[in-house]
Design brief:
Pathway: Pyrimidine metabolism; UMP biosynthesis via de novo pathway; orotate from (S)-dihydroorotate (NAD(+) route): step 1/1. Its cofactor is [2Fe-2S] cluster; FAD. InterPro entries: Cyt_c3_hydrogenase_gsu, Dihydroorotate_DH_ele_sf, Dihydroorotate_DH_Fe-S-bd, Dihydroorotate_DHASE_ETsu, FAD-bd_FR_type, FNR_nucleotide-bd, PyrK_electron_transfer, Riboflavin_synthase-like_b-brl. It is a single chain. The chain is α/β, with parallel strands linked by helices and 259 residues long. A hairpin with a 4-residue loop joins strand 5 and strand 6. The chain starts with a strand and ends in an 8-residue tail after the last strand. The strands form three sheets. A seven-stranded antiparallel sheet has the order 4-3-7-1-2-6-5. Strands 11-10-9-8-12-13-16 form a seven-stranded mixed sheet, sandwiched between helices. Strands 14-15 form a two-stranded antiparallel ribbon. The longest helix has 12 residues, at 121-132. The protein has helices spanning 76-81, 121-132, 152-156, 176-182, 196-205, and strands at 3-16, 19-25, 38-41, 53-56, 59-61, 66-72, 89-96, 110-116, 136-143, 161-165, 172-173, 189-193, 210-214, 230-233, 236-242, 249-251. It contains five helices and 16 strands. Bound molecules: flavin-adenine dinucleotide (FAD) and FE2/S2 (inorganic) cluster. The site of FE2/S2 (inorganic) cluster has 12 residues, from loops.
Length: 259
Amino acid sequence: MTGKEDMLIVSHREIAANIFELVLQGELTLQMTKPGQFVHVKVSETFVPLLRRPISIARISREDKTFTIIYRKSGEGTALLSKKKPGEKADVIGPLGNGFPIDSSLKGKKVLLTGGGIGVPPLYELSRQLKAIGAVPVHVLGFENIESSFYKEEFARLGDTYFSTTDGSLGVKGFVTDAISYHEIEFDRLYACGPTPMLKALETRYTEREVYLSLEERMGCGIGACFACVCHIPNDPAGYKKVCSDGPVFRAGEVVLSC
Ligand SMILES: Cc1cc2nc3c(=O)[nH]c(=O)nc-3n(C[C@H](O)[C@H](O)[C@H](O)COP(=O)(O)OP(=O)(O)OC[C@H]3O[C@@H](n4cnc5c(N)ncnc54)[C@H](O)[C@@H]3O)c2cc1C
Ligand code: FES
């Protein structure tokens, strides 16, 4: 079920260069169950900017009705969001979209979670839930550099955690695929979230495996009404899926990764 609520900002802090962690509290949290779902946040009190901003749910805590989002301050919307203070309210619609599929068949199985930059946040709740059902999460996280990296210890507490950075300041120098090769990581299932070139590289490399990809496409309405987020279906020029309501998570090969 999706709802809309003015949620209380419990904490808000910069956890890496231009990366912010925002914890919100309210009844909507109780509707958040699946890792990989996202919320649509109104970033200002006025009509400018008009559109909400989609941000993934990074952690859910039903006990105190809080959930966490982690976002990069990149443009007008996230810059406005970064100014909000604890004690203020934020207008949130969610949870939205279909998240990562997980089930008890993964018990005892090695599951690789691969994230790039702002694609890393939803993997944290995913890893927590995988661990809770007895799966063995392994993380490969890619960042620009060590200054923009975050949640290193948090992921390490859940399972083996490896890094890649563009400049080599943390982990393997290069892409997440380089780190997977370097550490010779084997796995039963792969989940990934990050830039499209990274998702494409993983899809191409692991055609024989069970792979799920989360797309962070630009959005308008976030609820399937505006067609801003459509992706094509392979071998079907007229066919499409909406990232906001059919996704953002798709099985590898289900949509063309160019949108
Ligand atoms: C389902 C989903 C989940 C997301 N989860 C997160 C998250 O957990 N943390 C996070 O930091 N960001 C996340 N994003 C991306 C986030 O929505 C954008 O960074 C944000 O909307 C940018 O808004 P802005 O006004 O600050 O920047 P804009 O002025 O709109 O753009 C600034 C820069 O961000 C890029 N950008 C804008 N929208 C997107 C987008 N949807 N995806 C990728 N790049 C974009 C632009 O190309 C530009 O370089 C998610 C996007 C989607 C669709
Ligand atoms: S964002 Fe409007 S249909 Fe997906």
